[in-house]
């Protein structure tokens, strides 16, 4: 278990928290009016940032950048700035969804894609946002210590960080950052274009992770109530335009053609999917979940010819995607799980390794499909037997 709330304090000193009482009118910072769920954690992250004053921070986006991780990274950078912390936001996997590429562009977000030769060891600290574990996807001889870790996935733990805040009952990591902003002296300023972009990004992150607030939790609504006054509505409309590309349409069609339904469970393999279209798998899962009588949809395909990528969506009160995916697919030899997730959704990735070099694509797909189907149907079978017996 990570130590929650408690920053490791090299100096032993905890800085007093400047709280925004009556509103800082000189800078147009409206006063905080909402409820703060975790004032102790706010105090702790501010103290942690104070201890790192003047340092160079690497903010890590793991996996494919999505609206919640992008907004959280920008919020982390914004908070660091008040402590003269110079932050670089890095991501490792392509920004595959066209909407997310447009988001980064319109936010002027200055994210850097990792390139070979980037000296991660040269940073003083790292911050992780919106991810379950703080493992870097690349090998670094001496990775910098972790300054902050803020997330809303299921707690895994087993690492050290200056500050840890994991709230499984938050719909988005963006909401946690919004709470820090609302209740500290780092609050957003009205009429400041950079702050407007950050508020807009956070709002979009919350909407993206909560199915447009359909699955929002109290903290997400509180965040929305705070953020709305700063939002650039035109920008929000621009970045949240839902469009489905022709290739995603095609993936959805393959999902429809190949679906098999057992009880309330729908499984569909969509074959080979290009790297840039990988989000089509999750979109297909979202779509097939709307099939009448289906409570859980799992869609998978082979992405980029070398990894089986899958997406689980569920409305079932009894399926916990995190535990379910971990139980079905297990972990690699290093103990890293192939999958995990949040309250209502999750993903998994299984590298094909040497098999990726198989030139017979039909045979490769047949093996991948059969393996996934057997594992999933075996698991469902077990659950049904359990259900019948119990
Ligand atoms: Mn998230």
Q: What Rg do the Cα atoms give?
A: 22 Å
Stretches where pLDDT falls below 50 for ≥5 residues?
A: 1-25
Shape: globular
Strand order of the largest sheet: 3-2-1-4-5-6
Instruction: List bound small molecules.
Output: manganese (II) ion
Superfamily (CATH H level) name of the largest domain? inorganic pyrophosphatase (n-terminal core)
Number of strands: 12
User: Main sheet?
Assistant: 6 strands, parallel
Folded structure, characterized:
The protein has 390 residues and is α/β, with parallel strands linked by helices. It contains 11 helices and 12 strands. The chain has helices at residues 39-51, 67-81, 98-107, 173-182, 193-209, 218-227, 233-239, 246-258, 279-288, 321-329, 361-389; strands at residues 56-61, 86-91, 111-113, 125-129, 146-151, 163-166, 260-262, 265-273, 296-303, 307-314, 339-341, 345-351. α2 (67-81) links the parallel β1 (56-61) and β2. α4 runs antiparallel to α5, α4 (173-182) crosses α6 (218-227) and α8 crosses α9. It starts with 38 loop residues before the first helix and ends with a helix. Residues 1-25 have low confidence and may be disordered. Manganese (II) ion is lined by residues 68, 130, 152, 172-173, 209. The site of manganese (II) ion has 6 residues, from loops.
């Amino acid at each position: 278990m990570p130590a929650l709330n408690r920053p490791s304090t090299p100096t032993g000193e905890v800085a007093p928290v400047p709280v925004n009482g009556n509103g800082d009118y000189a800078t147009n910072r409206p006063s905080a009016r909402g409820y703060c769920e975790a004032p102790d954690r706010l105090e702790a992250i501010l103290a942690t940032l104070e201890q790192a004053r003047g340092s160079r921070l690497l903010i890590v986006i793991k996996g494919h950048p999505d609206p919640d991780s992008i907004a959280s990274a920008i919020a982390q950078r914004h908070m660091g700035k008040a402590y003269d912390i110079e932050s670089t936001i890095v991501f490792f996997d392509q920004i595959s969804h066209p909407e997310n590429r447009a988001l980064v562009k319109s936010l002027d977000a200055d994210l850097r894609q990792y390139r070979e030769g980037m000296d991660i060891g040269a940073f003083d600290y790292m911050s992780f946002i919106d991810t379950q574990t703080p493992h870097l996807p690349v090998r670094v001889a001496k990775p910098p210590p972790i300054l902050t870790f803020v997330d809303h996935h299921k707690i895994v733990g087993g690492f050290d960080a200056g500050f840890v805040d994991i709230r499984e009952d938050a719909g988005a990591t963006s909401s946690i950052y919004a709470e820090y902003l609302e209740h500290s002296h780092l609050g957003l300023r009205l009429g400041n274009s950079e702050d407007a972009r950050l508020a807009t990004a956070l709002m979009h992150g919350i909407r993206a992770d909560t199915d447009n607030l359909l699955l929002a939790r109290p903290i997400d609504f509180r965040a929305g109530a705070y953020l709305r006054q700063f939002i650039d509505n035109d920008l929000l409309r621009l970045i949240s335009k839902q469009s489905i590309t022709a290739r995603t349409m095609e993936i959805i069609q393959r999902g429809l053609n190949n679906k098999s339904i057992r009880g309330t469970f729908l499984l569909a393999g969509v074959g080979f999917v290009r790297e840039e279209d990988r989000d089509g798998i999750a979109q297909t899962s979202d779509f097939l979940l709307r099939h009448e009588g289906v409570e859980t949809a799992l869609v998978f395909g082979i992405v980029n010819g070398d990894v089986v990528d899958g997406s689980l969506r569920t409305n079932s009160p009894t399926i916990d995607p995190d535990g379910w995916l971990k139980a079905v697919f297990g972990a690699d030899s290093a103990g890293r799980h192939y999958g995990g997730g949040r309250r209502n959704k999750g993903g998994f990735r299984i590298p094909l390794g040497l098999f990726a070099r198989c030139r017979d694509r039909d045979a490769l797909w047949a093996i991948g499909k059969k393996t996934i189907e057997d594992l999933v149907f075996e698991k469902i079978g077990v659950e049904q037997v359990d259900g019948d017996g119990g």
